[in-house]
Every structure is written in C-alpha cells, then in structure tokens.
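Hey team,

Filing this mostly as a record. A colleague (T.K.) asked me to run one chain through the structure pipeline before their review meeting, and I want the input and output archived in the tracker in case anyone asks later how it was produced. No errors, nothing strange. Just documentation.

Input sequence:
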Amino acid sequence: MRHICFGLIIIVIIESIFIIWLLRKHKKGKEIDDTIEFFRSLWGKFVFYVLATSIIGLFLGSIFFEKVIGLDEINTWVGIVLGLIALVIGIISLFLSFYNVDQANKTQDKTVIIIQGFQSEMIERMHRLQKDVERKIDESTEKTRDEFSKYRSTSDTSVKQETGENVEWETF
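Output structure:
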C-alpha cells in the first residue's frame, strides 16, 4: 500500500508539473483575459485528466502489486481525487471571482465618468436653453412694449391707435 501511495504521489507531482508547464507556456505574452479564458477551457480537461490518470494508476498498481483492488478502495480514491480537484477548481474560482470584482469596479468607474460627462453636458445645455428662453422673453417683452407704445391711452377707456382709428374697450 505504501508503494501505491508513493506512486500516486509521484503521479500527482507529475500532473502538477504538467499543469504549471501549461500555465507558464500559456502566460508568455498573454493578458489576464486570455488567462481567464484558458482556465475556463482547462477545468473540464483537468478534471478528466486527473480522474483518468488516477484510475489508470490504481489499476496499474493492482497489476504491479498483484493485489485485487475492491470497490471500496476505488470509491475512497475517487473521493480523495475529487476533493483535490474541488480544491484546485475552488482556487481557480476564487481567482476568477476577484478578477470579476475588479472588472466590475473598472466598469463602474467608467460608467461614473460617462454619467458625469453626460451630466455636465446636460447642465451646459440647460444653461444655453435658459439663456435662449430669457432672450426670447426679452425679445417678446420688447415687442410687447413697442406694440403698447403705438397706442395712446385716453381717460374714457378708449384707446386711440396712431392710424387714427378708435378702438373701444369694454370695462367690467
């Protein structure tokens, strides 16, 4: 049994070296997004690879040591391997969740900048609109004053237009 454990430890070390080699080979000249995509595509292959090599290792160990491995040993071993896989996947998931939080914060900062730019642009437009409305009101007031200045008021509540026509206003 010690030899099986020693052999399996060697297999795990070889798998770790292979995974680290894959990561370093993939990291050269790549950005974080490519690494994230690599992990997304790696986990299924990783799980299959570890399970397959573990089960093959068990059967090779049973042949080498000429000992029959029962279902209890296989179930125990698969449980241990799946626990290790869950640990590795959990670490990758933790890394991805931190990355997602960073991306969300960056997106939020960009959104705040865009909204602030939009807000300042809208304030400028509102000021221009307010000035335009004030100008229009001033023009309208000036026109109204001009129109009233054309008329002269008389004491009997009739208004005499410069053209000479009398316009009667009714008083209430």
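Quick notes for T.K.: The longest strand covers residues 158-161. The two ends are 117 Å apart (CA to CA).
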